[in-house]
Amino acid sequence: MMRRRKTQGHTPHPPRSEPILSVKDLSVRFNTVDGVVHAVNSISFDLYRGETLGVVGESGSGKSVSMLSLLRLIPEPPGEITSGSAILRSGDESVDLISLSWKQMNRVRGRRVGFVFQDPLSSLNPLISVGKQIREIIERHNIARGSAAKRRSVDLLKQVGISDADNRYHSYPHEFSGGMRQRVMIAIAIACNPELVIADEPTTALDVTIQAQIIDLLMKLKREMGISVIWISHDLGVVAGIADRVMVMYGGTAVETGTAETVYRHPRHPYTVGLLGAIPKLHQDNKRLVNIKGTPPSVYSALRQCPFAPRCPWSFDLCTQQRPPLFALDGNAVSDSRHTSACWYDLEHNTRRTEGAV
Amino acid sequence: MSAGDFVQVHGLKQYFPVQKGLLVNRTVGYVKAVDGVSFGIPRGETLGLVGESGCGKSTTARSMLRLHEPTEGSVRIGETDVTRLNYRDLRSFRSRMQMIFQDSYSSLNPRHTVEYIVAEPLLIRGERPGANLQNRVQEMLQLVGMNPDHMKRFPHEFSGGQRQRIGIARALVLNPELIVCDEPISALDVAIQAQVVNLLSRLQDELGLTYLFIAHDLSMVRHISHRIAVMYLGKIMEIASYDELFEQPLHPYTQSLMSAVPITDPAIEKSRARIILEGDLPSPVQPPTGCVFSSRCPFATDLCRNSEPKPRDVGTGHSVACHHIDDRVVGPRITASREQIVNGLKDAAHHGPDRSFTYEPTQSNSSARSSFS
Amino acid sequence: MRIDALDRQDLRRAPQRLARIVLRDKAGLFGLILFVLIVFLALAAPALSPHDPLQQNLRSSRQPPAWHEAGSMEHPLGTDNLGRDMLSRILVGTRVSLTVGFFGVLIASSIGLVFGMTAGYMGGRTDSAIMAVTNLVLSVPYLLLVVVVASVLGRSLLNVILIFGFTNAPLFVRVTRGEVLRIRTSGYVESAISIGASRHHIITRHILPNLIGPILTVATFEMSGMIFYEAGLGFLGLSVPPSIPSWGNMLAAGRQYIQFSPWIATFPGLAIVVTSLSMNLLGDWLRDVLDPRQRRSS
């Protein structure tokens, strides 16, 4: 079908009240036999109702670990959240996810926050029919029971675009294709009307035409249900099409944040610039792609410098002596849409920074 | 395909029997993984072969190199018909055609050092271990941008991009003429993908290599290919030079693939026209009758479902297998969709990041970094 | 677990890695030391034995171990019902156990390697035929086989070894075949074919080296099992003749004195347990050490 994705990134948000999720100074480390891996180093961000935050980075950047640790979905031990808070608000009620007990957390997971993972085959139980798996979560969180729960499960299957839902309710995961399984995962994620869905590389394992289907579906549901989405991806192109705001991660830190339009059109961190230059454009001269030399850093030591400094063409002595804070770039006072970059070098004016941090 | 092409694949078929039965296996059908594929590659050029998983692109590569025994068809490389070689001749001919594998984790033997991995092709050809061989390995590692001091290490000690470089060094050590790259970058991070693609381009220029480059999406293929073939369910749907294909994607499937390539510009990516195909790839055991794409094609008619379109040459080496691209009823709709998609993509080309930085290390600190690259 | 950061940047050198694994796996290290000690004791048994293990002395029969008030340092572990020195007998018994274990496994793994590789590499009818015979052998109750052989050919060490060798071969056939099937379709074998490697090259350079790890691991577990079973057969009087001091024979002899002279049965029993334990620990350890990709499993 020929269609255009509904634009929703440009519509100015109404005066926003408070973010539904505020993460402050989150740090996560893993205590392994080889030493301490500093996987996430004090990241902070806000997420507003109905907004999509794209979290972009290469493998090892800490993008998945940071988001999964919010809901304690990392193995502990070896994982350990060493600092930070994550306030999830709805109405007047607000809870700090980091300080919740395991039992309280279980009432948040699946109910207020849904998940879509990269590999639906390992996330779905192979021995239980897909319908029952949806029904299970509905009943566990007391949304509905008995035949009402079953009806709701069938409706959800229809809602995620599975035809013949009444019969497909009884199918098992292996009888579905990868794209269909991801649809089931989405049905489970939205089954309890969550406020937030965390999608961890939901389309990475899929073919491009199926990827387009799944993105289309998730964005449609998000619009209809007013869900906020955190979309974790290594694919800058995918994120461009769906995110209102973007956070670029490298070496366990957020190196650049801002609205999607700003970050993609006016990137100010050397890593973002390089990453965008490394992606070929379909209609452009066949010139060489940007080569970011070297490989991503090992995070076995605590960060005392810019993690990108060893690969950065603009790095100078300060970069290896002190970790750069996030600098505000546009002087925009509105905290959530401002453009920030964690770099000692001002690419725009070709000068070195010493102060002006956020 | 023209008679002068260095690689000429003609009517290549690869069927795998589907067997059932408890005690005695009966063949109940065939997976037609590759079903009559023909193409040519001129010497020193790259043909990009694109399609989704299960379309038969990797099988095509393996049949060409006779890692599978092809069911039918011929593969000429230079003056040699590879399909007619006997076991002995085939083994020695393999030095002229090499493969770079997708999964560098499994394609490098975990028990061998990098030195042995790169030297193995030479050892098989009877070269003796020694300083000479070691020099050659070091040369190859340098050629692919690896530190030769690391040759005593094992594959798992390297990152994905570096392992892929080891695989490239191993493929190059015999001075092959044809290299089949089977999704060599699909498993790598974006920045590393660019490194590997740049390396392959440079090697092609320096060594005059001919590539068959396989990928599952169009974006990276565009960057390295001279010509591109789009495959779907064992058949080639469209084949054209890259300019031609990106300006004039005639086949609806090519159009849908192009519209599915994510663009790194939010405004355009959110608003551009795209074809979102319904459903999944059909089973290659029971492909749709008529045109194999008819079950998912937004423009399909009864003609498509009943008769198979033959590849037609529409000029300048551009060949398409579609009934409707120039008829009076459906043709204009296909053309309209093509224009919308191509325009969307062209917009993106003009709206990159606001300035293009020269992404080169400055003089003062380049020496400090050489150990990283 | 999805932690990409953990998966990269392991650029440490092999010796350090080995040292790291050895030190990390304390139990494995303990097993290794124990095993080396046991092998040493078996080899040096004649020199270390304070007495002739066969020499009877009825006057000092059933003498308790040295730490018992009625014991003496002359017989540190006491004597058995015929007055033979327990320590010397246990030391010499080590040889029987290790001989059975070692040669039994050698026969079983050799048969397993040859037939398993043939089945796995050739496939098709050859594979079906070998696996059919394998399953047939597996279905023969080995105890029955032992009884028959012992009564027909008599009790001897060689017979025990041969029976263990043949009845345990199917396990090795299966493990080898499974591994060969896995390796044969692996990326690196395909890569070897693509560079023009001969079958011989693929088998010797790619398949065999990758078989050693799994086979050696199974072998240690099997060896421990055989030592255990040999003792069991000895206890039933079906293993080596009573004239040879083996742990099983000693256990059987001590059974009737268990109430008043428990040490006669206890020490051979302990020896069996310690040997089995050391091999099981060693097997776990080998599995880790022999895999070059082995990183942080614990």
Verbal overview:
The complex is a heterotrimer of chains A (358), B (373) and C (298). Chain A has twelve helices and 15 strands. With 358 residues, chain A is an alpha/beta fold. Chain A has a domain at 256-280 and 290-352. Chain A has an eight-stranded mixed β-sheet with strand order 7-8-9-4-10-11-13-12, sandwiched between helices. Chain A has a four-stranded antiparallel β-sheet with strand order 3-2-5-6, covered by helices on one side. In chain A, strands 14-15 form a two-stranded antiparallel sheet. In chain A, a hairpin with a 2-residue loop joins strand 5 and strand 6. Chain A is globular, with a radius of gyration of 21 Å. Chain B folds into two domains: 7-111 and 159-232, P-loop containing nucleotide triphosphate hydrolases (Rossmann fold), CATH 3.40.50; 249-350, no CATH class. In chain B, the strands form two sheets. An eight-stranded mixed β-sheet of chain B has the order 6-7-8-3-9-10-13-12, sandwiched between helices. In chain B, strand 1 and strand 2 (26-41) form a beta hairpin. In chain B, helix 3 packs parallel to helix 5 (160-172), helix 5 (160-172) packs parallel to helix 6 and helix 9 (252-260) runs parallel beside helix 12. The radius of gyration of chain B is 22 Å and the shape is globular. The two termini of chain B are 40 Å apart. The relative contact order of chain B is 0.12. The model of chain B is unreliable at 361-373 (pLDDT under 50). Chain C is mainly α. Chain C is 70% helix and 0% strand. Chain C is elongated. Chain C starts with 13 loop residues before the first helix and ends in a 9-residue tail after the last helix. In chain C, 41% of the residues are buried. Residues 1-13 of chain C have low confidence and may be disordered.
